[in-house]
Write a structure and sequence with these properties.
Length: 153
Amino acid sequence: MDLRPGPARAPRPDRQPIHLDGAWHTPPADILRRLSDQARSIEQDLNLIPPRTGHSAIPAAPTASAQLARVLTQLADEQAGPLATVRGLIEHTAHRLDRQPGSVGAEAAHGLKLIARRLHGIQQDLETTAGRLAQPRTAAMAPSARRSAHRSL
């Protein structure tokens, strides 16, 4: 016996679904659309899929600029980014050195504080750059679109 699935069979036009009361009824013509709409509504209500905006069924692929912006944003993240971690360690070390007796500790602490300040500036620059990369660029118009509609002969 062959258990492989065969091609899907279309319902025969002479068959109608039987309802619970035993009566035969022809389904509405838009039943598939209505069922699909209801399924999407339930999925959205349960937060199983994000709500759709527009008519595009396939989300647009992220651009290289958007991907780089995401990486830069992660690097510059003030809460959990690697640069913030390094800066925090440098600041902590500077504060500990500040408490050490002698001028060598104070000089080293001052130098570390300057490094931490530069790192903070780098984080801000990365955030700015990520913001610029994330913004959609206005594409230059194609040469054919720039030509005037009126031609002189």
